[in-house]
């Protein structure tokens, strides 16, 4: 592609002109072969790669399977980033993998698989550490973890459920005819109390022991007491906490209600991505794309630093302006990411149980039980205002860009709704115009292009906010931004058309406008990365 | 309701064991959520001779969730906030088990006074003091016991701010002679965790003066 050749020289000082000449190349764009889209989406390096892992054979993937041509890659990066190799899993799949490992390892241990499971849980599912400890001090380990009673006379026939008359339970202090449970230790409580005790602990994912000693309740015990397969819940929580603890390699898909986890085996290349202002975007098997480093949606042209600075600022301002952007926060103690639940500012870390205040990130305890007022936040606010040169102006600039950002976020949601109906439209084309499914794909492609263009546009406002406004390259960026905005609105408008006849008649326009959005997006992204690489755009506290 | 039964039983158990010198009672007979407990400072510690009162809130899920406890009596101790009385003790959090009672929890608090855990502090300033200069720490803790935990406590007495935080009066005088205000000096020394001054340590002295000049 001619435009790519032209682009490969974009690193010299007159790169500014390249962006300009890119603008004029609009007329040259002809109806595009949809297969070319991945050539142009330079940030999709990962997608090309992930197709190995993705067994779903949806249209999306087959279109994306075209490898990035070497020339494009060279053109689009100063130095290239290594491909990301990752897999997409669910907690259930991770657990099944663990079970397979346990069955595989069982001969080494010569104890029941259920016991190996407890050992694995204790060692955070790290089999290397477990094997090391096991060879060193087998018996000690079994006792320490509570799989074996320290007293020799702990008899196994004590273990289990029994029926008792006039049993005095020391937990609820009730004397009654009841079923009870105890382990070999003989610490016996009524089944009601045991159920209550276990119920509270299932979601924590930790090993559950006897209430009065360290003997372990195995999955069979738990299921026996609870009367149904509650141990799966415990195992699920345990895997969740495993994922949380290994958050460098495992990331939850941030999309609402999505249960998938991306596992990146080798994280060594992430630093390289950061250095070159690329973002490691990944895609879950539901097709949700997000940044592996920061967990946000695809945020190019902004890099992770700009994104987190922008989001932080939005949070800070959200008190004044009633904007709520993010729903997660890192635990100040262990850095695990926690989701905010409704309007409550009282946060409890699911991993380390630390309780803190959403607004000031301080310990929750001093916030009191009565009227909630967070003084620390206010102090912060006055301090930072004092430190700025012209807070009023900064805020104005920010408000300006944020409004645009927000507007496109709202639009993106509407676009998404539009996307939901595109299937019907293609169907209508088939039914009424006799158009084949394949032929109708251009509509689906167009909506995808629109979404990507919109997202890039949205995040470009964050880049604009953090860029040195006096620099010439920033001005070019803003021009590019305007062109993409116009291109996106044009395409969006085209996609509002409902009549199949009109759609088919204007089919070339869909190709044209999509292609144009795609090119504008590429230009804006590359220009944005240039701003970042040259230090013209950098995060600040303003 | 099992929770009420259990609490009543626990109260009885405390009454049946006067030897332990532990007290436990409702703040208000109509509210079984809210109790006050107390115990004596362990002998041979700076807390000896004091009676320590603890505010206890019993949650709905008790005994499956731990009671919330905090000191009403001001205590100078690494694991207890000198400002709020909040307590950092594992059995009141993640290590809680339904077999633990209010009485055994109070006994654990008594044991905590006996053996602080300065590496898991609730009050960083106090913990620093404990780790750096045990003798001076003991003096301060004993002073607090006398002022706040004894029957003839602080009422009506004026207390010297520097002494209250175990700051050597010589150190305060040193900076007073340079024209700084006492309140400010105490505040800065507390913030830096300095209880005593080494006259040869000019770097520290300069750092303090710099801070005082701000
Ligand atoms: Zn019971
Ligand atoms: Zn037991
Ligand atoms: Zn997903
Ligand atoms: Zn990112
Ligand atoms: Zn945490
Ligand atoms: Zn706060």
* Order of SSEs of chain B: HEEEEHHHHHHH
Record field, number of beta strands of chain A: 12
The structure class of chain B reads: alpha+beta
Give the overall average pLDDT of chain B.
Answer: 90
Shape of chain A from CA axes? Answer: elongated
CATH architecture of the largest domain in chain B: Roll
Largest sheet of chain A: 3 strands, antiparallel
Unreliable runs of chain B: none
Give the CA-CA distance, first to last residue of chain B.
60 Å
Query: What's the Cα radius of gyration of chain A?
Result: 29 Å
The appropriate CATH architecture of the largest domain in chain A is Up-down Bundle
Number of strands of chain B: 4
Strand portion of chain A, in percent?
5-15%
Spell out which ligands are present: zinc ion
Key traits:
heterodimer, A: 542 residues, mainly alpha, Four Helix Bundle (Hemerythrin (Met), subunit A), 3 domains, 3-stranded antiparallel beta sheet, 20 helices, 9% strand, B: 214 residues, alpha+beta, Ubiquitin Conjugating Enzyme, Helicase, Ruva Protein, domain 3, 2 domains, 4-stranded antiparallel beta sheet, 8 helices, 4 strands, binds zinc ion
Characterise this structure:
The complex is a heterodimer of chains A (about 550) and B (about 210). Chain A is mostly helical and about 550 residues long. Helix content of chain A is about 55%, strand content about 10%. Chain A has three domains: about 5-85 and about 250-305, no CATH class; about 95-240, no CATH class; about 305-375 and about 390-535, Four Helix Bundle (Hemerythrin (Met), subunit A) (Up-down Bundle). A three-stranded antiparallel sheet of chain A has the order 1-6-5. In chain A, a hairpin with a 4-residue loop joins strand 2 and strand 3. Residues about 1-75, about 320-325 and about 370-390 of chain A have low confidence and may be disordered. Chain B is of the alpha+beta class and about 210 residues long. Chain B has two domains: about 5-150, Ubiquitin Conjugating Enzyme; about 160-215, Ubiquitin-associated (UBA) domain (Helicase, Ruva Protein, domain 3), CATH 1.10.8. In chain B, about 40% of the residues lie in helices and about 10% in strands. The radius of gyration of chain B is 20 Å and the shape is elongated. At the A-B interface, helix 10 of A face helix 1 of B. Bound molecules: zinc ion (6 copies). One zinc ion (ZN) binds near residues 357, 362, 367, 374 and 377 of chain A. Chain B: Its EC number is 2.3.2.23.
